[in-house]
Write a structure and sequence with these properties.
The protein is of the alpha+beta class. Helix content is about 40%, strand content about 30%. It folds into 2 domains: about 230 residues, FAD/NAD(P)-binding domain (3-Layer(bba) Sandwich); about 120 residues, 2-Layer Sandwich (D-Amino Acid Oxidase, Chain A, domain 2). Helix 1 runs parallel beside helix 6 and helix 10 packs antiparallel against helix 12. It binds arabino-flavin-adenine dinucleotide (FAS) and P-hydroxybenzoic acid (PHB).
Length: about 400
């Protein structure tokens, strides 16, 4: 098989890139390790920056997002019994959209299928060959049958555990990592959200987040130990702990119910440099990971896709390699700002095992300053709604 761009990974990065390339008349093939249902069964991000919304519009996939997504003009931040609001729209003129990553992925799959896009599911043994030559190709097996795709470029959109990053010779890679000493236990419940906006809570018992997918589907998280397993937590135990981490007025409003999904995500900051090797380009979680505190994972994958799509479109339209040659530097500049914000917000809102009394005083002082200072709130809002591409 031959194509212009071989895309490894059928998550949001790979699908969005494939759809944008298609809209620019550029052929691609997506190779996905799992089934479509498995990919759609993952419960992940919930908040979209305007940049991703605009890309979905450019991809012709934003109708349901606009019809069903929720415009959020701000978020609430609580510490102990204190709570205040950051007004995104007042400080930046921009809201965020609450619309689950699952739905983004569903819309992208629908668009690729409607356009006759080729997505190979349940592929195995994916190997990238000749990425540092002018004639790369990818081999893989599918249901035991050997396959090969000859291509001009390869997009590694295969997430943190994929094959693409590891294809770049270790001596050419610089990796930066910070592993956080806790995880997030998340549940999905068919209950009305406790508030119409998100609540990020710093409590003496640890972090909590109240989010949602719609008016009848709530998403909640509590900071948990890395030794915890989802099965260690009954629904009742989760609800009790969540209530203890919210201001009393919010805890009283909380509508509890059975969880329909329960999982634990470890938290890590990770970046690999460069995000390109020859004709292989890394996008999204294949290149970087952020703690989900700042809702930057999916949204930073989107800006990678934006830069790579524009570089490839320019290359095929004009023969110029300027866009693809500057891809890694341009993407990394925005990646590191997302890493910083996610690290800052995680440091502000979580309780760390090695924190002493002075550290806790610093957290409260920073929260007091954020609560009372417009410049601090504007900076927080600009990072949360998404820095410019
Ligand atoms: P993905 O990991 O989504 O997709 C990669 C795809 O490649 C997968 O479908 C995988 O099956 C496939 N693949 C892997 N190896 C392959 C191979 N060798 N061959 C073929 N295919 C292969 N972000 C937020 O903003 N908020 C959140 O609350 C949040 N929660 C998260 C919870 C968890 C448990 C995880 C893991 C991530 C979370 N994220 C969150 C981040 C997440 O949303 C990612 O940023 C987003 O999925 C990035 O999309 P992709 O880059 O497409 O990577
Ligand atoms: C979510 O709704 O899953 C969500 C929202 C905001 C975050 C992280 C996760 O910062």
């Amino acid at each position: 098989m031959k194509t212009q761009v071989a895309i490894i990974g059928g998550g949001p990065s790979g699908l969005l890139l494939s759809q944008l390339l298609h809209r620019s008349g550029i052929e691609s093939v997506v190779l996905e390790r799992k089934t479509k249902d498995h990919v759609l069964g993952r419960i992940r991000a919930g908040v979209l920056e305007q940049g991703l919304v605009r890309l979905m519009e450019e991809a012709g996939c934003a109708d349901r997002l606009h019809a069903e997504g929720y415009v959020h003009d701000g978020t609430l931040i609580s510490y102990g019994e204190e709570m205040f609001r950051i007004d995104f729209t007042e400080h930046t003129g921009t809201p965020v959209i609450v619309y689950g990553q699952t739905e983004v992925t569903r819309d992208l799959y629908a668009a690729r299928e409607a356009a006759g896009g080729l997505i190979e599911y349940e592929v195995e043994d994916v190997v990238i060959h000749g990425a540092d030559t002018d004639a790369p190709h990818v081999t893989y097996t599918q249901h035991g049958e050997p396959r090969r795709i000859d291509c001009d470029f390869i997009a590694g959109c295969d997430g943190f555990h994929g094959v693409s990053r590891r294809t770049i010779p270790p001596e050419l890679r610089r990796e930066y990592e910070k592993v956080y000493p806790f995880g997030w236990l998340g549940i999905l419940s068919e209950t009305p959200p406790v508030n119409h906006e998100l609540i990020y809570a710093n409590s003496e018992r640890g972090f909590a987040l109240c989010s949602m997918r719609n008016e009848a589907l709530s998403r909640y998280y509590i900071q948990c130990s890395l030794s915890d397993r989802p099965e260690d937590w009954t629904d009742e135990a989760f609800w009790q702990e969540l209530k203890r981490r919210l201001p009393a007025a919010q805890a009283e409003q909380l509508v509890t119910g059975p969880s329909i999904e329960k999982s634990i995500a470890p938290l890590r900051s990770f970046v690999t440099e460069p995000m390109r090797w020859g004709r292989l380009f890394l996008c999204g979680d294949a290149a970087h990971i952020v703690p989900p505190t700042g809702a930057k994972g999916l949204n930073t994958a989107a800006s990678d896709v934006h830069y790579l799509h524009r570089g490839l479109r320019e290359h095929y339209a004009t023969g110029s390699s300027e866009g693809i040659d500057s891809y890694s530097e341009k993407a990394l500049s925005r990646v590191w700002k997302a890493e910083r914000f996610s690290w800052w917000f995680s440091s502000l809102m979580h309780r760390y095992p090695d924190q002493g009394p002075f550290d806790l005083k610093m957290q409260v002082a920073e929260l007091d300053f954020l609560r009372s200072n417009r410049a601090a709130q504007k900076a927080m809002a600009e990072n949360y709604v998404g820095l410019p591409y």
